[in-house]
Amino acid sequence: MFLANSDIHITTSEEEARGLTVLEAFASGIPVRAPRSGGVVENIVKGWNGYLYTPQSADDFAHKLQNLIGNSILCRHMGECPQSSLDQYSWDNAVHTLVSLWQELICKSQTVLQPLHPLLSMVNSTADVRS
Questions:
Q1: Is 66 in the same domain as 10?
Q2: Checking DSSP bridges between strand 9-10 and strand 50-53, what pairing results, if any?
Q3: Are 23 and 52 within one domain?
Q4: Tens digit of pLDDT for each residue in 37-55?
Q5: Domain of 45?
Q6: What is the total count of domains within the chain?
Q7: pLDDT digits (tens, 9 = 90+) for 12-38
Q8: Which residues neighbour 16 within 8 Å (Cβ) at sequence distance 6 or greater?
Q9: pTM of this prediction?
Q10: Which residues does 40 contact at the CB level (< 8 Å), separation at least 6?
């Protein structure tokens, strides 16, 4: 709601892990200005969906903000581009990634247990004999 009425999203936090507000801005079609630090740097591509500024640099911040304010065509274009990059954060993709990770871990654990398989069989057969 709030983002839909904005032209530019600016975040000043230098310690974002993922930058959820940045992703929300992308989903709303708004270009982003954020400090070049933390997890947001993974999401922002210079000139495509926003600009990163040097933390603690008022001059760099002002210069890059002026680039967006002074160019409505660039601003609109930068707002349209990132929506396609949000697919990687869909629930379908999250579930697929999680299942793939589980499958990989299961395969690795089976590889580790395979050399022990004959020993496990001997232990099981010995237990059967004792019963």
A1: yes
A2: unpaired
A3: yes
A4: 888 888 888 888 888 999 9
A5: 3-84
A6: 2
A7: 888 877 778 888 888 888 888 889 988
A8: 22, 34, 38, 39, 40
A9: 0.61
A10: 11, 16, 18, 19, 22, 32, 34, 52
